[in-house]
Amino acid sequence: MVPVFNASLHQYNTFGLHAKAKVFVEARSVKDLIEILEAKEWKSLPRFILGGGSNVLLTGDISALVIHNRIDGIVETAADEEHVRLHVGAGEMWHDFVMYCVSKEYAGVENLSLIPGTVGAAPMQNIGAYGMEVKNVIETVEAIEMETGDLRIFSNQECQFGYRESIFKKELKGKYIITGVNFVLNKIPQYHIEYGDISKTLEEHGVKELSLRAVSNAVISIRRSKLPDPAQIGNAGSFFKNPEISLGDYERIKSKYPEIPGYPTDLGVKVPAGWLIEKSGWKGYREGQVGVHTRQALVLVNYGGGTGDQIRMLSQKIQDSVESKFEIRLTPEVNLV
C-alpha cells in the first residue's frame, strides 16, 4: 500500500499509453481499500479506480489518486446438486476465473473465455460474448462507497444491467468501488454453441462430445483469430457498442445495402458496429501511430507511441463518418478518461 507519485500507467492499460497518475496506490484487500479512502493526506484528491485497464482510454495524465484494485481470491460459499455459489475478488483476472470454473466443470461463463480485464469490471460493463452475458450468473455485487467507506451489497436487479451497461456506469459512476462479485453457476451445463463460429470451430477441432473445456477452447481460438493481442499491439478490444436501431431504420438501410447483417431484439434490430465501420472505409486505416485494425474494424489500435487523445480524435472521426453514411451514431464501449 505504498504510494507512488507521478506514476506511469503504461503497464496498467492495454492500449499501452504513457499516461501518468498524480498518486498511485494498490489495494490488495478491503481493509487496504478502506485505509486508502480514509487517509487524510489524499482526502483532497479525486479518486480514480483502475482494474485491468482493458476497457479504458487514458486521454491524458490523471490528476487524481489512482487506486489499483488487486483484491483477489475465489471462495466456494455454497453448493447443492445443481448449483455452486462463488465469491470472487474484484481484482481477480476474469480469464483466470473462467479457467477455474472450466476446470471445476462449473457452467455459465465458458463462452466468456479470454475476455481481458478483471472480475470487478465484469458487472460494471455487463460483459458478454457468444450468446452469454455476465448478468445471467451474477447474484450480488459487493462495493464500497467511496465517500463514506460503507459496504453495500447490490442485488442483480439493483445493478440495472443492460447492454454493456450497469448502474455503476450510470448514476453511480465514480461513487463505488466494486470489491467482490457473488456468482451462481451450474453443475449441469446447458451449452450455447449456436453463436458465431463456435459450432464450426468445434467441428474443426474434431470435438465429438461437448464439454465446457471444448467450448472454452473454441471461443479462445475464435477470439485469437479475430482480435489482436494487447501484448503485441495496444488495444482495448471492441471500441464501440453494436447499435440497436428500429426495424424501420434497419429496412431503410437494407434497401440500399441488402447485405447488412442484423439481429432482432425486443426493441428493434442490433447491427454490428464493425460492419458499419468497415463499410465506411475505415478498416485498416492508419494515422501516424494509431489506427483501425486490419482484421477487425471494431478495434482501434496503438501501434506504439500513440496517445490517448489521438485515439479519441480518430474515434470521433469514425463516429462522424458512420453517422453521415448510415444516420447511426456509434457509442463507445471503452470508457474515455
From TrEMBL:
Q: What does this protein do?
A: Cell wall formation.
Q: Please write the reaction equations for the catalytic activity of this protein.
A: UDP-N-acetyl-alpha-D-muramate + NADP(+) = UDP-N-acetyl-3-O-(1-carboxyvinyl)-alpha-D-glucosamine + NADPH + H(+)
Q: Which GO terms describe its molecular function?
A: FAD binding; UDP-N-acetylmuramate dehydrogenase activity
What UniProt keywords apply to this chain's record, in alphabetical order? Answer: Cell cycle, Cell division, Cell shape, Cell wall biogenesis/degradation, Cytoplasm, FAD, Flavoprotein, NADP, Oxidoreductase, Peptidoglycan synthesis
Report which gene this protein is encoded by: murB
Q: Where is the active site?
A: R164, S238 (proton donor), E333
Taxonomy, superkingdom: Bacteria
Q: What is its main location?
A: cytoplasm
**What InterPro entries does its record include?**
FAD-bd_PCMH (IPR016166), FAD-bd_PCMH-like_sf (IPR036318), FAD-bd_PCMH_sub1 (IPR016167), FAD-bd_PCMH_sub2 (IPR016169), MurB (IPR003170), MurB_C (IPR011601), MurB_C_sf (IPR036635), Oxid_FAD_bind_N (IPR006094)
GO cellular-component term (any): cytosol
Which segments constitute the FAD-binding PCMH-type domain?
17-188
Q: Where in the cell is it found?
A: Cytoplasm
Which cofactors, if any, are listed as required? FAD
Q: What is its EC number?
A: 1.3.1.98
User: In the UniProt record, does the keyword Cell cycle occur?
Assistant: yes
Q: Which family does it belong to?
A: Belongs to the MurB family.
- Associated pathway: Cell wall biogenesis; peptidoglycan biosynthesis
Main EC class of this protein? oxidoreductase
One of the protein's GO biological processes:
cell wall organization
Q: What is this protein called?
A: UDP-N-acetylenolpyruvoylglucosamine reductase
